[in-house]
UniProtKB/TrEMBL annotation:
Gene3D superfamilies named in the record: HUPs
InterPro entries: Rossmann-like_a/b/a_fold, Universal_stress_UspA, UspA
Family label: Belongs to the universal stress protein A family.
CDD domains documented for this protein: USP-like (cd00293)
Higher taxonomy: Bacteria, Pseudomonadati, Pseudomonadota, Betaproteobacteria, Burkholderiales
Record-annotated UspA domain positions: 1-138
Name by which UniProt lists this protein: Universal stress protein
């Protein structure tokens, strides 16, 4: 059913739960698993500041990916890991298209109604624009 699964990962509790679901599905369907972390670029910053920030974020996510790699290896899965810069929903949809994934798995952040109305929801945007199935884990 699924040949390639993309999990959007930010290190939050919902993302951890979403990773577990994605890993279980990858094992069940013998699917490739890709883990994507997205870094929002700073609004106003010098190029040097941006580069330094991005280097720190890269290190941060590499540290966060280590336990995911171990959990996946115990299940016989060797996921791909990628860190990109940009708007989360846009990058998730772009990565899914580029890698021809069959399923995108995202964690639900649990924003309140007003915050969702004011800021929008990355999950909703991914659902609206993705070319494939999207699973939102609460």
């Amino acid at each position: 059913m699924f040949k390639r699964i993309l999990i959007a990962y930010d290190g939050s509790a919902p993302a951890e739960k979403a990773f577990d679901y994605a890993l279980d599905l990858a094992v069940k369907y013998r699917a490739a698993l890709d883990v994507l972390a997205i870094v929002r670029p700073p609004d106003f910053a010098e190029d040097v500041e941006t580069e330094a920030l991005l280097e720190k974020v890269q290190e941060h996510f590499q540290d966060q990916f280590a336990p995911l790699r171990e959990r996946a290896a115990r299940s016989g899965i060797a996921p791909g890991f990628n860190i990109v810069v940009g708007h989360p929903a846009e990058q998730i949809v772009r990565e899914a298209e580029q890698k021809s994934v069959d399923l995108i798995v995202v964690g639900h952040r649990g924003k309140g109604l007003f915050e969702r109305w004011l800021l929008g929801s990355a999950s909703r945007t991914v659902i609206a624009y993705a070319h494939c199935a999207v699973m939102v884990i609460r």
